[in-house]
Design goal:
With about 130 residues, the chain is an alpha+beta fold. It is about 25% helix and about 25% strand. It contains four helices and six strands. A three-stranded antiparallel β-sheet has the order 1-2-3. A three-stranded antiparallel β-sheet has the order 4-6-5. The longest helix has 11 residues. The chain is globular and about 35 Å long.
Length: about 130
């Protein structure tokens, strides 16, 4: 499955959001000890009181933001992961540090697949992320 999101850019950034006139996507960089880089560089935008984030280096998506923007409980993410044991090894969990980046991060293609299954009500709000 091709995401259409992997783009070689001059500044070294590998991932970027899709253009959308209806969303204001910004760049940010959050310091954390939970990542070997020491920080997470993201594209982000608010949705239903949550932050939708894309790691601009490796394309990981903060699934917790999408899940909570749908009105679901953060605890329910565990049920999704438990139902797909092969998924667990590909996830990153950020705990502690800056609240905005805490949660479950997953590779872009996995987040896209899950969004297609469960995020229909907010599909137009996810255009910057998934096109």
């Amino acid at each position: 499955m091709s995401s259409g999101l992997l783009l070689p850019l001059a500044n070294g950034t590998r991932f970027r959001p899709y253009a959308s006139p209806d969303h204001h996507v910004t760049k940010a960089r959050y310091i954390t000890s939970n990542d070997p880089r020491g920080y997470i560089p993201v594209y982000e935008y608010p949705l239903n009181g949550q932050w939708i984030m894309l790691d601009m280096d490796d394309g990981y998506v903060l699934w917790t933001g999408i899940w909570k923007a749908l009105g679901n409980s953060k605890a329910d993410i565990v049920k999704i992961i438990d139902s797909q044991p092969d998924l667990a090894s590909q996830l990153r969990r950020v705990r502690g540090g800056y609240l905005k980046i805490q949660g479950t991060w997953m590779p872009y293609d996995i987040a896209l697949g899950l969004a297609r299954r469960v995020a229909w009500p907010i599909r137009y709000e996810l255009v910057p992320l998934f096109g």
